[in-house]
Amino acid sequence: MQEFSKFPTKTGRRSLSRSISQSSTDSYSSAASYTDSSDDEVSPREKQQTNSKGNSNFCVKNIKQAEFGRREIEIAEQDMSALISLRKRAQGEKPLAGAKIVGCTHITAQTAVLIETLCALGAQCRWSACNIYSTQNEVAAALAEVGVAVFAWKGESEDDFWWCIDRCVNMDTWQPNMILDDGGDLTHWVYKKYPNVFKKIRGIVEESVTGVHRLYQLSKAGKLCVPAMNVNDSVTKQKFDNLYCCRESILDGLKRTTDVMFGGKQVVVCGYGEVGKGCCAALKALGGIVYITEIDPICALQACMDGFRVVKLNEVIRQMDVVITCTGNKNVVTREHLDRMKNSCIVCNMGHSNTEIDVASLRTPELTWERVRSQVDHVIWPDGKRVVLLAEGRLLNLSCSTVPTFVLSITATTQALALIELYNAPEGRYKQDVYLLPKKMDEYVASLHLPSFDAHLTELTDDQAKYLGLNKNGPFKPNYYRY
Amino acid sequence: MQEFSKFPTKTGRRSLSRSISQSSTDSYSSAASYTDSSDDEVSPREKQQTNSKGNSNFCVKNIKQAEFGRREIEIAEQDMSALISLRKRAQGEKPLAGAKIVGCTHITAQTAVLIETLCALGAQCRWSACNIYSTQNEVAAALAEVGVAVFAWKGESEDDFWWCIDRCVNMDTWQPNMILDDGGDLTHWVYKKYPNVFKKIRGIVEESVTGVHRLYQLSKAGKLCVPAMNVNDSVTKQKFDNLYCCRESILDGLKRTTDVMFGGKQVVVCGYGEVGKGCCAALKALGGIVYITEIDPICALQACMDGFRVVKLNEVIRQMDVVITCTGNKNVVTREHLDRMKNSCIVCNMGHSNTEIDVASLRTPELTWERVRSQVDHVIWPDGKRVVLLAEGRLLNLSCSTVPTFVLSITATTQALALIELYNAPEGRYKQDVYLLPKKMDEYVASLHLPSFDAHLTELTDDQAKYLGLNKNGPFKPNYYRY
Amino acid sequence: MQEFSKFPTKTGRRSLSRSISQSSTDSYSSAASYTDSSDDEVSPREKQQTNSKGNSNFCVKNIKQAEFGRREIEIAEQDMSALISLRKRAQGEKPLAGAKIVGCTHITAQTAVLIETLCALGAQCRWSACNIYSTQNEVAAALAEVGVAVFAWKGESEDDFWWCIDRCVNMDTWQPNMILDDGGDLTHWVYKKYPNVFKKIRGIVEESVTGVHRLYQLSKAGKLCVPAMNVNDSVTKQKFDNLYCCRESILDGLKRTTDVMFGGKQVVVCGYGEVGKGCCAALKALGGIVYITEIDPICALQACMDGFRVVKLNEVIRQMDVVITCTGNKNVVTREHLDRMKNSCIVCNMGHSNTEIDVASLRTPELTWERVRSQVDHVIWPDGKRVVLLAEGRLLNLSCSTVPTFVLSITATTQALALIELYNAPEGRYKQDVYLLPKKMDEYVASLHLPSFDAHLTELTDDQAKYLGLNKNGPFKPNYYRY
Amino acid sequence: MQEFSKFPTKTGRRSLSRSISQSSTDSYSSAASYTDSSDDEVSPREKQQTNSKGNSNFCVKNIKQAEFGRREIEIAEQDMSALISLRKRAQGEKPLAGAKIVGCTHITAQTAVLIETLCALGAQCRWSACNIYSTQNEVAAALAEVGVAVFAWKGESEDDFWWCIDRCVNMDTWQPNMILDDGGDLTHWVYKKYPNVFKKIRGIVEESVTGVHRLYQLSKAGKLCVPAMNVNDSVTKQKFDNLYCCRESILDGLKRTTDVMFGGKQVVVCGYGEVGKGCCAALKALGGIVYITEIDPICALQACMDGFRVVKLNEVIRQMDVVITCTGNKNVVTREHLDRMKNSCIVCNMGHSNTEIDVASLRTPELTWERVRSQVDHVIWPDGKRVVLLAEGRLLNLSCSTVPTFVLSITATTQALALIELYNAPEGRYKQDVYLLPKKMDEYVASLHLPSFDAHLTELTDDQAKYLGLNKNGPFKPNYYRY
What's an example GO BP annotation here (chains A, B, C, D) (predicted)? Predict the structure, then answer.
């Protein structure tokens, strides 16, 4: 299983940001206050709990929080009408009848809506958390109350983490036939401990960058023994996770942490990919003066045409009020840059890991760190200059802003459709490889979300469909279409 | 003193929102967490406190918080460089030498920067709070520590409130010659209790809508006995308090309370004045689809040209995702409108009072109120429909977002210049009337804030000034210029 | 009559741009091609022409063009529904019954709609042209055909110009009682030649900057002997002539002359008044990177908050692709600036006169001028550098773009209402002074244009009107309101 | 050669719009006036002409126009610095030494810059026109003057057209080894008449949609006998031809034809692909209120998130001021829609063919057509309603606006690099198939255009390149990247 040997250390790995789509559980989220309440300190593993129907096939912090968790789920359902409509459309057929899904994701109100949708479509589910901090305890309780076998709580230890996963897989009486994973830990565990389980597995659905990367490595090495669906790269999910979501969260993250006024601020955004495009659009719209750095000439040309000056970072760094990284690269903002920033300059990261700003270089004796607010540090130079560092260089949108439920709905619906597709695909459609969601299903995800906007699609006439050489129901674009 | 008899009841009055410029003290502000700490319950009036120099000429919650308050003030100074530069420019001349200023404003880090600027310009100050809830205790302590006679704490009673004001005015050894007021309470108290004080007063500077209104009434009634400066209506302050500030705070307020995604949301904004213009620009920029209601055909025409549909509220109310009032009017959103809203519709107010949404009409037995978060109520109809009401219809930007220090800097600088102008004006320049800040000083306030943006003004040549018939140093526009 | 002695020389004066609102007759306009047709060379003054009813009380180029002119007028009527609705509303009352209006304006299809509206409201009209080049001959013919006494043609001589005006005023059988002027020439002529006419005149309506300036001078000198209405400064007209119109015409003017791509272009706009704001908004929206120069700190601060860098011209001149003046000032772009521009830099003027760019400084032997297209000169430096000068520094929007009929409708409606107001005002309402259109009528102009946008105004309830202290029918804002 | 039997009739075919990139020759373009000059009526084929060096190996309208044509080429060079820099970079190596290129494209100043660049890189060229109307005669003359064997003039007959192509290919002394085609006619002719020529051909570069389509058909049918490069679908060219170019040309086309004011106009854009996105962005930016129709749910969702209402055409058709098609589909606007439009509604097409609006349905007796201006028809209903039809439903941006030289520079540079790549590719890199330009060369095209914007690319450090797993010189993105 050498592919997995390249994994970062386990603790580190699980503190990586995976996908934006599952980030609603940070300290700013609506429900955060509730889960912070000081429960007793007994480990859930040592508690005996049963739900109101006498079922004890779960392990959560406190089953008594179920009612509160149910309300959170109901609120989430209001912005996840795509899943609700999926429940309705599938009412007769039960496309997941017989499916036994083992899942490992963040456990939040939004995931709960997904899990309960899978159940409504006919599946049985066992679930653990993909992150030791992100579980909403009351939501886990609500799931347990309605009979979902959930094993997760906020603040698990490393050992708890694997114990929970194991409890989902290692059952004499219940053999999973589908895997829904976020980060690849569940898949890893099955590979390592219970390889025989794969004989019954019809497919893996994986949504994180990291997990997808591992699957491609397995595939390349010829070790992927079931079909896998990469839902991370579906068009709809990508646009929402990056462009649309960042357009909103950059403003939210900056405002909640620093109360900065955007108007007239000089901002440099490093990287003009989808995340950078979203950040730039928002900041420009609110009166910021935005500069771009880019390594790719095509993206640089786009930045020019969109009205941004393309510069090298050291050309502008002295005059910037805000510096934002969105590159996926490392050491984009170096100590040298930090040394040259002006007083009160705000530095933050919207890219996909915490390496973009060389934060380590700031941990030197001559600099003083002052924590002025949650997620906000002033790093103070000997001459009194302060640089405002947000989230210690980790992802601003994960740490300091929330993700709208609607964005999570896109992801969850994509996951549900991928499960349905893999579970129902005729023999031979999918081999032991990694697949993207078929474009037609990607379009279906989009179409399920249009009613939220009261948007009305136009249908092709027979004549038009023939003229265009298209099926009236799609797919409407070739695979390489750039949207 | 019949003018004052029209005042709302005192408690009600002081819970009115006055000006946006002094709103940084709500529960979301940076320092909020600190002042929430549970101090002992002894009234400050009963405590004996002295600062480190043995001075006890103040009354604050806890003098020991001074150091922390000092840091808050220092952070505020970073975004108030206009006042700092005013200190520097006036270093030699001390334009307020001899001035004895009695003030009644919100007491926040930003006000502290103002007060300390006034002192640096030569003035002596005594200060109380214009709002019983808005005092940052640690800031008051920091002021007391450096010798300012401050009488204020968070959570004053009605009686405390007037006691504090009285302690500022009623001194044998110290007679004020200038008044800086925010809301008119201080002015009212002096009129009522110590009319003789006006003999020495050179002028009143008032920044709130309410206070200015009262002054005009006094003037109209022939009872204004000193010159007064209306700083509320200076161009610079108005643009920042309304257009620019609301452009940012509407997003912030909605996001912090509801985590709503803006993209694709259908929003109706009632009123297309400066506040409405700011809200619309921001929401449109982030992908909202915005409709306007207006009573004034000129503003309506502007809305059209700016790309918004102008509608009557009842024409669109059924399909809206968000309803925002910015009219200054009352009952703009009625129970009938609320009845017709769709599930999950968000309703909030950005106008100048809490009357715009008929919240009272929602206090009926068939509707259930559910507090889902601070400042967020779900009002639930019998059929399960939920309307999301923010801040119970009070000002969203005061209740649920913060005001950037830069905006407060504009106001504070305007106040400082108004005090200097009135104090130094030659006999006869100002009569017993209400004046606007001279345009030249309004321009000066603006110019003091340009360095923050690294903006470089162009100077007229002699020849050009002559051609335009202007003084090279301004004023540059006629009074009626619309900006 | 010394006020008039300050006038520029007559020929020069009439080549001044007056108001944007009457500029549709330049060489790019729709009808231009028609009037360019080579008519015979006999002066209209020497021709004997009669219309189809035998009337010969006019002097136009060619009465036979009437039918074609009528079609132009009908097309214009489609975008001037405000005037059409004014005709309808006033059908019974004829508010201008008895009015004898002598007018001197550009004579275009749009003016014709105005003139025919005045007639429909009961007035008799005699009309001449305020510009020797701007008359649409076919429109003049169409007016003559329906009996309007019009004296104007394209390409009048200086002598023709005054002859035409004189033919309007100098009648034994017809004494005017109202004047509608654009530029002040008609008013000047009456003052100079027929001062007695003023005894019957109830008022002057003047729409140009120049003409209004003269009226204020007369008033100041105590020589204004009738009331005058300044329609140039009405809110609605101002916004359309400047902000909204320039937002569109800057793009149009640049594109028609140079086919320049806007995306990524670096542009400096000198002046951030209404014209500058319009230009900047459009250029930024299409991907331009815009810099501002300003002398007024308040406008400069607005530019900052709107997301523009405020610079001095010489700081950025080397890197600019386009330079646009909107100041109303002179020598804003000097030879020194022009020397430092880069190759292919485009220079043009959107301000109110042709003095902003020091074009004269380019008429030196070492520079070569090359006319590459109508209104486009390449000025070539000895090293081969070319600067692209548009319209020789005259107004770009007058010379190289058209003005939408809708904008002209605003002006024409304002003029019509001003005439009605002055003609019907009770004795004493207006003295021998210059007045702005009452705000209520300004609002009425706006309201007449709302149906074009299918915009629906909201009406105040009695209760709301009382709360706001407003009349339900307006005016809705104080005079100083800034919109 | 049955693939070619599906071709439209020849005349029809060549009036098809192919690619936007070669559209600068319509009647609005800068040089149009010059080529309209009435030359003598003798066919160029019958003239004996020699250039100043005695060379007569060409056939153009009038060799004497060479000097004027040269100036046009020089002006074009100013905006095509990418090609100029290509000339410089390749100075030593001459990457096209030995290349004998036969070309068939529009012959314009911009193409001339391309042809002369190919020559500068070492190639010999023979050239004909791909469109019987689009040749700029003076440019052809200038090319002939410097020795390019060009056979083209404006207003060729069908017979002339093929004669010119034949003269390029059918030479005893000169055998082409590269083909540059635009539309496929040249390729078709060689296939049909001189199939043996393909033995020496190293590759075909084709830029039009139509020509590319034919090549794919040939390839599918196994009849493509040389490698072909599809430059139409390169990222950079696509973005400029569609999104960026249409963002500008929609405004230009509407303004030049109708002088319409954009502010407040209600517009429906059919299709939200790249062209639609460009149109919508521009119109919204200038104050239009834009609605979208879409068949593809993903594009529809993008429209929602970008702030547009997604509707069916018949839901909004009654209230629209402007209707724009950008679908590539047929009969998107039907007679039924046209019947329901309001008076003065403007209808135009920005999509890729003239079928989107059912113009044929308007050719019925009860409707009157009135040509009011070049490219503008009023179609008049019996009740007087007028619909304003632009360019008779053909492409607005080809017929009524110009294409910036910069956009053409992108295309020309892409063509040049494709020729270099194919000509120099080692044996076996390209087979008898159709290829996209390698991403690295696409990036190179982009990079050559960055200096125009003074844009500065950031270079990866070795360490960063390793971290990202990228070559420091690109390509920087995977092939499926969506930009």
Answer: S-adenosylmethionine cycle
Name the least confident of A189-198, B51-60, B84-93, B257-266: B84-93
Upper half-sphere CA count for residue C66 (Cβ side, 13 Å): 19
Token pair, residue A478, equals: 């070739």
Distance CA(D421)–CA(D468), nearest Å, equals: 27
pLDDT per residue as tens digits for the range C308-344: 999 999 999 999 999 999 999 999 999 999 999 999 9
Cα C409 to chain centroid, rounded: 11
Residue B409 CB neighbours (<10 A): 27
Contact assessment for residue C160 and residue C45, using Cβ atoms and an 8 Å cutoff: yes
- Interface confidence, given as ipTM, is 0.90
Summarize pLDDT for C284-312 with one digit per residue, the tens: 999 999 999 999 999 999 999 999 999 99
Rounded CA-CA distance A68/A141 in Å is 9
Separation in Å, CA of D91 to nearest CA in chain C = 23
pLDDT for the residue numbered A39: 52
- CA neighbours closer than 13 Å in the CB half-sphere of residue C239: 22
Q: What percent of chain D has pLDDT over 70?
A: 92
Q: What residue has token string 């125009």?
A: D452
What is the least distance, in Å, from the CA of C304 to any CA of chain B? 7
Q: Distance of alpha carbon B319 from its chain centroid, rounded?
A: 34
pLDDT in tens, D424-475: 999 999 999 999 999 999 999 999 999 999 999 999 999 999 999 999 999 9
Query: How far away is chain D from the Cα of A440, in angstroms, using its nearest Cα?
Result: 10
Angle between helices A274-285 and A245-258 (to 10 degrees): 60
Chain C residues inside the 8 Å CB shell of B482: 235, 238, 274, 482-483
State the CB neighbour count (10 A cutoff) for residue C454: 16
Could you tell me the CA-to-CA distances from D12 to A322, D5, D63, D129 in Å, in that order?
Answer: 57, 14, 30, 16
Q: For residue D356, give the DSSP letter.
A: S
Nearest to C228 by CA among C180, C186, C164: C180
Asked whether the bond before C404 is cis by omega within 30 degrees of 0, the reply is no
Task: Please tell me which residue of chain A has the smallest CA distance to D444.
Answer: A297
Of D296, D298, D331, the CB nearest to A464: D331
C23 vs D227: CA distance, rounded Å: 57
**D135 and D109 Cβ atoms separated by less than 8 Å:** no
In a 13 Å sphere around the CA of D96, the CA atoms on its Cβ side amount to 31
Nearest residue of C to residue B442, measured between CA atoms: C298
Quote the mean pLDDT of chain D: 90
Asked if D434 contacts D233 with a C-beta cutoff of 8 angstroms, the reply is no
Helix (H) or strand (E) holding D305: helix D297-305
Q: What is the pLDDT at residue D16?
A: 30
For A210, phi and psi rounded to 5 degrees? -60, -50
Segment C162-168 shows an average pLDDT of 97
Indicate whether C351 pLDDT > 50: yes
Contact between chains at A310 and D244 (C-beta distance less than 8 A): no
| pLDDT confidence band for D31 (50 / 70 / 90) | very low
Give the CA count within 13 Å in the CB-facing half-sphere of B126. 21
Q: Which helix (H) or strand (E) holds A149?
A: strand A149-151
Amino acid at B234: S
The percent helix, strand, coil of chain C (3-state, each to 5) is 45, 15, 40
| Beta strands across the sheet bearing C289-293 | C309-310, C289-293, C266-270, C322-325, C345-349, C386-390, C376-380, C368-373
Residue B356 to residue A52: CA distance in whole angstroms: 46
Under 8 Å between Cβ of D435 and D232: no
Nearest CA in chain B to A243: B263
